[in-house]
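Prompt: For my understanding, could you write out one protein's sequence and backbone structure tokens?
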Amino acid sequence: MSNYSFNEVSLIGRVGKDLTISGREETLVVTAILATNESWYDKEGELVEHTDWHSVVFFGKTAKLVKQHVKKGMMLHVLGKLSTHKWTDKENVEHYKTQVIASKVGFLEKKLSEITVPEAA
């Protein structure tokens, strides 16, 4: 059995709400909620549309760039990896949250197309 594994995510979607920003300049963390959509026709020929909402976390120089330039409604291309966190609350109930930890971001808006996006720190 091989020990090889692979964790890579590529999303293209729109920012669904205002960014969540925490930390200071050197420890800046920015979280965006990215919407991706798909549609298909069901057995009756009716169009079905579905939206998934993804929590995307940016760190370092990429977080600074996203904080400065990204607004709700903008189209982004995000590359990263999935990370799932588990915790137990006061009532001893287990919770899970899966996020995309971004390594690269591309701005898919014409006015930002000239911005050079650094590699994640």
About this structure: Helices lie at 60-69. The chain is about 10% helix and 55% strand. The beta strands are 9-15, 20-22, 29-41, 47-59, 75-88, 94-107.
